[in-house]
Every structure is written in structure tokens, then in C-alpha cells.
Specification:
Elements: E1 11-12, E2 24-26, E3 31-32, E4 45-55, E5 60-68, E6 72-81, E7 86-95, E8 111-116, E9 121-127, E10 130-141, E11 147-156, E12 164-170, E13 173-194, E14 197-200, E15 206-216, E16 220-232, E17 235-243, E18 255-258, E19 261-264, E20 268-271, E21 281-285, E22 290-306, E23 309-325, E24 331-347
Parallel strand pairs: 1-3
Antiparallel strand pairs: 2-12, 4-5, 4-15, 5-6, 6-7, 8-9, 9-10, 10-11, 11-13, 12-13, 13-14, 13-15, 16-17, 16-24, 17-18, 18-19, 20-21, 21-22, 22-23, 23-24
Amino acid sequence: MSRNHKVTQQQALLDRKGHIAEQGWSDRPVWTYSRKAVHAGKLRIKEWDYYAVHSFSGSWTVCVTVSDLGYAALFSVSFIDYAKGGFAQRDITKLLPLGRTGLAPSSSEDSSFVFQNHKMRIALIKKGTKRHLLFNVPDLVLPDGRTGLDVNITLTQSAALRSMNIATSWAEKRKAFYLNQKINCMPASGTVRLGDDTTYLSKDDAWGVLDWGRGVWTRENTWYWGSASGIAGGGRFGFNIGYGFSDRTPASENCLLFNGSVHKLDDVTFILPEKSFTDPWKFTSSDGRFEMTFRPAVDRSSDTRIPLVRSIQHQVFGYFTGDAVLDGGEVIHIEDFPGFAEKVYNKW
């Protein structure tokens, strides 16, 4: 199989033995996921939906995560304030969901998810080309001292918008697999209420990304991921970069997006600072088509330790500057372009 093998035919993700039928990448969802086809116990199956929406004028990002990790379900909402250099987050965990959280088996079909208790409400609704994100944490204390976060955002995923899709396995355990779709460059509309103040999102100011994943992981992993979306080079521009998670011999997940099309990249290396995650980062690619620096503003960090589980996360939000080269040779130059990059270690 060639490097960066592109899969074009719609097909079941797993064969009868529980292996990925055809590993590689695609610019649209081509793999059909089914929990019944997975050759692993319920404790090992991981399913997650993660959305991040950034406002250029507001210098903030809101994030919402719903994940079913088998042994626990996580519901998380966060607000990242670039100007204040801080973040506010609320996490709620439920033990042993075992696939009963209610996440949809497809990222493309219409679906709805709702979770609520006295501390948090989350509703994620996919209908046609619209993705509605509604979440509320009434007593969340924001970095600037205001209390309360209420988000009502609609992301538009037009039929012409392509995305990064990848299906890969682990070299040491081929029945462990990673199915992932990252949808960049979705324009956002709606409102965000911070305390008593409501912001109405304006055209071309706020952009969303979806990280939709399903899989069975090996016990211990470290991964790197970066993403950004907005307006650059006279069009809608974004990128997805990452590695370290599963065997990427069949394909990388690195790509540029411009006006709805995917421009595939080879390998991208994250050059992290030695002393602090909030020092400048660098990024370089094996094909010379992604050369960036990154100026951090906020390190959304955590270190979770429970029996048999350890998770160290640094999702750093900040500003990218540099050059990206499209398939046809056109150079997109960006200056202080907001996005995030992360390093995450998980053992479970």
C-alpha cells in the first residue's frame, strides 16, 4: 500500500476479523462504523464528539466534549480567554457507560444528543447542513470574573465542504483502530452569553471545528494535534495536523483546507519548547508545505490520576504565523492566525 493511500469507496470499517478493511485517508466519510463489528470488550471502545468554536474579534474559544470511554463518560465545557490568558472549565464524569451515552454511529447522518443535570446542559443536534451546539453552565466563573456561560451556536457544513477522514490501526495490535473525521472551516452564527453580556456572532468572524472519533486504543499513547480555521489568502482557510496516535504508515492526517477542498500534506513535526508549553512552538513538514511558528496565549492543561488511569493534557491556544502551500503551489501566508496545538499522554 502506498503512503497516504486515499480510500474512495464507501465500505464497512471493519472486516469479519475486526481489522480495518482498507486503511488510509479520505476527504469525505467513506467508512461505516458499527459497535457490533468491534472485536473488543465494551470497556475498550472509545467514542467522542468534540467541538471548538473561535471568535476572531472576541479573542475567545468555546469547547464542548462528549465522550464515552467505556469505563467512564465525560461531559466537558470550557471557555478560553486569550486576552486574560486563562480558561474556565466544567467536567462531569459518569462511571461505566459502556456505550450507553447515546453518541451517534455516524458523523454525517442527522442525530441529536442531550445531557443535563443541575450543573450543566449540553445539546448537540445535526440536521442537514446545520450543526446546532447548545450548552450552558450557569455558575461557571470566567477568567475575567463574570459568572455564567450560555452558548447557542449553529455551524454550517455545506455539502461541498470536504474534511479530513482517516482510518488506521496500531502496529502492535491490528484490532485496535482509530476512525476519525475532522471538519474545519465551518462558519458559526448565533449567540454566546458571558455573564450578563450577550455577543451576537457576525459573518466571517467565528469558525468551528469538529473532532469526531470512534475506536479501540492500545493501553498507552501520546498524540499531537493542531487545528485552525478562518479567512486567509482570499478564501476560507484551515488546517489539521497531527501524529503519534496509531500507525500512520498508510496515511497521515495532515492537510490544508481552502474554499472547501482538501490539500493533502505528508508528515508534520511539532517542535515543542523545552521549558514551558507557553513558550513559542515551531512546526515543519517533510514536504516543505507547512512551516509555522506558534505563539501561545493559554495552556488548557490537566493531569488526571485515578486507579489504572493517567491522562496528562496540554491543549495550547494561541496564534500561528507562517506559510502553507496548496496542491497547485499557491502559498497561503498567515499572521497571528488563532488556533490550537496540543500534546496529550493517556494511559488506560
